[in-house]
């Protein structure tokens, strides 16, 4: 597989054929990240992903090869999400429950309800975190980013990533304890 | 949500399990298709966006061009003064060749004349207007380094010629003579350069460099016990230290030579 950075370099050189594979491989994970960044707002996540890719490709000249492309892309996505809430003058409110899990035909309805409750608990727990901690937790646990990758994405030292993650985990555990999770 | 292979948090299994309850839905294919359609309309760069890598020949030509431009900036008086003082140092050294004195005038004048010249490389009188500097693609550090190379190189060549003459005419050991002025010249020039960058005042820098040099020379050549317990920096064992210190001073000076900082400081003065 051709590296992201190579594809990005090709786009910088005007190779339009490199755009689709680069976007294709990051589309779903980025939607997932933005979906969780928006507290489960699928339509908003898709809008933000659209904006992110448009910005990334339009300003591809600003990408500095060989810096990791993924970190650069997620930095744009994170900023897009931050700017959305900033411009809308609203903090991420629990749109938890706005979107219930899709029900497969062969799935028992009880199981769906339990899953829905569990997902809502996660959304509420994540929503209770300050933005800077939630970003780190999402990148680490859902996007499988390493500490270094998170540091590059959020432009913060690795030590700060570690401390934010550690505090975020503690807060999540407090929430888990409050809802008697695992008992 | 899979396991993170780089996880330094081995006891976070409960958190992983808790978070895994929230899955993201599969992306909407229609939204994805709309994105690809929109991306097809985004204009891409048509040419290489960065500066092309320079060949060695190109780099050398670039360096010569920078040196040539900076040659015009350094005052003619600086070149003439360097030449006259070093020539004077060679002449006096030659005349004193049989005096039996330990003092070698060339060793005293070469470092200080270079340090004085270097101190005048950076200052209000030398630098062009801010607009002119900002319009050049070359960094201020590189410009200063070019000036330093020019002046230091000029004095180096003059002193080398003088040393060769003295070795031939006055029986001095050439290598020992060269090292004896080259090391302090490097150290003192780097010190004067840093002072001029920090103080942005050539005269103050020259005065401080002169005082330092006087103390160092008196300590080395003085016949009596030193008034202050200073190490003899011109002693052979201090040479590696002086070279290392010169390098440190030069790096510090270049790192401080930011045009923004300088002009801010001027405005605040």
Structure description:
The complex is a heterodimer of chains A (183) and B (269). Chain A is mostly helical and 183 residues long. Helices cover 68% and strands 0% of the residues of chain A. Chain A contains 8 helices and no strands. The longest helix of chain A has 21 residues, at 158-178. Mean pLDDT of chain A is 84; it is low at 91-105. Chain B has 11 helices and no strands. Chain B is elongated. Chain B has helices spanning 13-19, 29-41, 56-73, 76-95, 105-119, 130-134, 140-170, 174-199, 202-221, 239-256, 259-268. The chains are: A mainly alpha (183), B mainly alpha (269). The A-B interface holds A 11-16, 19-20, 23, 27-28, 31-32, 35-36, 40, 42, 46, 49-50, 53-54, 57-58, 60-61, 99, 101-102, 115, 118-119, 121-123, 125-126, 137, 140-142, 144, 146-147, 162, 165-166, 169, 172-173, 176, 181-182 and B 1-2, 4, 6, 8-9, 12, 14-19, 21-28, 31-32, 34-36, 38-40, 42-49.
Quick gist of this model?
Chain A is mainly α. Chain A contains eight helices and no strands. In chain A, helix 3 (42-58) packs across helix 4 (69-87), helix 4 packs across helix 7 and helix 6 (131-142) crosses helix 8 (158-178).
**Structural category of chain B:** mainly alpha
- Overall 3D shape of chain B: elongated
Could you describe the largest sheet of chain A, including whether it forms a barrel? none
**What is the number of helices of chain A?**
8
From the N-terminal CA to the C-terminal CA of chain A, the straight-line distance is 44 Å
Reported for the largest beta sheet of chain B, the result is:
none
- Interface with most residues: A-B, 53 and 37 residues
Oligomer: heterodimer
Strand content of chain B: under 5%
């Amino acid at each position: 597989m051709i590296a992201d950075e190579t594809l990005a370099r090709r786009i910088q050189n005007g190779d339009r054929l490199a755009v689709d594979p680069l976007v294709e491989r990051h589309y779903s994970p980025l939607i997932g990240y933005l979906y969780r960044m928006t507290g489960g707002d699928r339509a908003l996540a898709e809008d933000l992903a659209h904006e992110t890719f448009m910005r990334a490709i339009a300003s591809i000249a600003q990408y500095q090869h060989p810096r990791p492309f993924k970190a650069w892309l997620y930095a744009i996505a994170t900023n897009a999400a931050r700017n959305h809430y900033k411009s809308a003058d609203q903090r991420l409110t629990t749109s938890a429950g706005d979107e219930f899990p899709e029900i497969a035909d062969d799935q028992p309805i009880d199981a769906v309800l339990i899953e829905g409750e569990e997902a809502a608990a996660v959304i509420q727990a994540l929503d209770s975190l300050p933005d800077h901690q939630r970003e780190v937790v999402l990148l680490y646990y859902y996007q499988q980013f390493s500490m270094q990758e998170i540091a590059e994405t959020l432009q913060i030292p690795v030590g700060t990533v570690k401390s934010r993650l550690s505090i975020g985990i503690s807060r999540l555990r407090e929430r888990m304890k409050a809802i008697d999770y695992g008992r | 949500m899979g396991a993170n292979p780089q996880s330094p948090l081995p006891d976070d299994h409960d958190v992983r399990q808790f978070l895994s309850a929230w899955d993201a839905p599969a992306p909407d294919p229609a939204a994805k298709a709309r994105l690809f359609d929109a991306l097809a309309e985004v204009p891409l760069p048509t040419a290489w966006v960065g500066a092309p890598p320079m060949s060695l020949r190109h780099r050398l030509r670039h360096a010569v061009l920078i040196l040539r431009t900076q040659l015009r900036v350094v005052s003619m008086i600086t070149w003439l003064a360097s030449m006259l003082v070093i020539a004077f140092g060679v002449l006096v050294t030659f005349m004193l060749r049989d005096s039996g004195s330990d003092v070698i005038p060339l060793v005293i004048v070469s470092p200080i004349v270079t340090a004085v010249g270097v101190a005048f490389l950076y200052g209000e009188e030398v630098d062009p207007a801010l607009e002119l500097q900002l319009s050049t693609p070359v960094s201020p550090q590189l410009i200063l380094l070019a000036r330093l190379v020019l002046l230091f190189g000029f004095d180096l060549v003059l002193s080398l010629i003088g040393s060769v003459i003295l070795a031939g005419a006055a029986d001095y050991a050439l290598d020992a003579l060269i090292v004896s002025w080259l090391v302090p010249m490097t150290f003192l020039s780097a010190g004067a350069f840093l002072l001029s960058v920090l103080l942005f005042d050539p005269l103050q820098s020259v005065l401080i460099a002169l005082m330092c040099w006087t103390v160092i020379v008196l300590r080395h050549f003085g016949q009596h016990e030193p008034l202050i317990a200073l190490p003899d920096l011109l002693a052979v064992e201090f040479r590696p230290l002086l070279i290392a210190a010169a390098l440190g001073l030069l790096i510090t000076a270049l790192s401080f030579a930011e045009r923004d900082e300088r002009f801010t400081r001027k405005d605040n003065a």
